[in-house]
């Protein structure tokens, strides 16, 4: 299993970023995909998740209405569209899948929200 995130960077408050995660090594469309984040001095937290077919999503209360998770099963990709970014969204964002009772993480992509 391999997960590779991209799309992070420095953005001003109120701005937008789109994160991408390329997945390989498993039957992508069969599994829930998630985005987590870990801010400075904070524990890693779930940001958003999406079911295999993409029909159901859930979000942390702190990002509801601002972030959108989506997936393209034909490309084995999962995305996180982040709008109206706030300084408290600053974190390393990780792609995650639980596959065959194992937990798999990407290496993460840094998102910094600052003026």
Description:
The chain is mainly beta and 115 residues long. It contains no helices and 11 strands. The protein is 0% helix and 53% strand.
Relevant terms:
115 residues, mainly beta, 4-stranded antiparallel β-sheet, 0% helix
Which H/E pattern describes the elements?
EEEEEEEEEEE
The computed structural class is mainly beta
Shape: globular
Give the fraction of residues assigned to helices: under 10%
* Largest β sheet strand count, sense and barrel closure: 7 strands, mixed
Low-pLDDT residue spans: none
**Rounded average pLDDT:** 97
Give the tally of β-strands: 11
Radius of gyration: 13 Å
Q: Summarize this, please?
A:
This protein has 115 residues and is mostly beta strands. It has strands spanning 2-6, 9-11, 17-24, 33-38, 45-50, 57-59, 67-72, 77-82, 91-99, 102-105, 109-113.
């Amino acid at each position: 299993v391999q997960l590779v995130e991209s799309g992070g960077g420095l953005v001003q408050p109120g701005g937008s970023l789109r994160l991408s995660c390329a997945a390989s090594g498993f039957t992508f469309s069969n599994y829930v995909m998630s985005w987590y984040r870990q801010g400075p001095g904070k524990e890693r937290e779930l940001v958003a998740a999406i079911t295999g077919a993409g029909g159901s999503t859930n979000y942390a209360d702190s990002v509801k209405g601002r972030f959108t998770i989506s997936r393209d099963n034909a490309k084995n990709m999962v995305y996180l569209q982040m709008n109206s970014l706030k300084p408290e969204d600053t974190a390393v964002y990780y792609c995650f899948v639980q596959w065959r009772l194992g937990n798999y993480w990407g290496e993460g992509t840094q998102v910094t929200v600052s003026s």
